[in-house]
């Protein structure tokens, strides 16, 4: 692990910052600091156009291999790109699921034909992806998936329901974990399917959140179809591929996420200084703890990025989701306490939340989505520490 950067790296940092300063202007100026977690519903068409702008500048999929359309940047330069992107207020990436999850998984497990067919649309910002993992009865318990798929005359027919599917209504493709072996249970009999979203067999229904927005959805599959050529890996490889994908999720973009957290913390500190909240010794201590906690997240991320980037979940990676979600939930509460009485007032009618108010409400979900804290503790205990498995009771 290196916690400093070379002169070459710093020159690259200046290049990234200059490009962003020159291009987050004009039609894209209003996108700065918009479209992140809790705000993903904002400006979807403009953010798709921004993806194409990034692609034209060579700033999508920067860590991918050249044969897949990437620049094969070093880990340190990828870190720099994601940090500078967030520092400049780059909007939430419409292509995040494709670039960070679907693409690396297709590159690792897909056939050459699948790679040639599917990766260019991600690199160019022309095609967008969503994730079909969670179900009403299988949120963090992915092994309890009930969605089924049957191969009929060269076509997979899929029936079932997925839930909490971010930006499904804006997506062209969905990677779906489905049970393809009748009678199978648990990790067995699952397959990883790549499914086009624009078809009659798929219904997307928005879920309204506490914030009043609807960036994620329920997705219903009613004999939806995808070609046999859109099976990733072999039938029954779904669990193995799904776990590798979760490893890619804890990649270099985590440093960009932390820079977004840094922006939020800076805003909270500025408000505390302006309204006198920083004079309260307890609030001042919590601000210091938040600052220190964010540094710890950074160092652990650098540590977990110093190993293999093949999707393997190292022990350092297994603690990351639990750490950041708990830290961010506390930051949301700290923001409201620093705002004081103003936290109870809305910017406008009928339900116009300020940025920190929306962050607080959305952070209530941080410890649930992407694997609940309870599940994360089980993963740490069983896989990282080698402790006895929790008894599984299935209906």
UniProtKB/TrEMBL annotation:
Keywords: FAD, Flavoprotein, Oxidoreductase. Residues 236-384 form the Acyl-CoA dehydrogenase/oxidase C-terminal domain. InterPro entries: Acyl-CoA_Oxase/DH_mid-dom, Acyl-CoA_Oxase/DH_mid-dom_sf, AcylCo_DH-like_C, AcylCo_DH/oxidase_C, AcylCoA_DH/ox_N, AcylCoA_DH/ox_N_sf, AcylCoA_DH/oxidase_NM_dom_sf, Mycobact_Acyl-CoA_DH. The keyword Oxidoreductase applies. The keyword Cell membrane does not apply. Residues 6-125 form the Acyl-CoA dehydrogenase/oxidase N-terminal domain. Residues 130-222 form the Acyl-CoA oxidase/dehydrogenase middle domain. Its cofactor is FAD. Gene3D superfamilies: Acyl-CoA dehydrogenase/oxidase, N-terminal domain, Butyryl-CoA Dehydrogenase, subunit A, domain 2, Butyryl-CoA Dehydrogenase, subunit A, domain 3. Belongs to the acyl-CoA dehydrogenase family. This is Acyl-CoA dehydrogenase family protein. It comes from Zestomonas insulae.
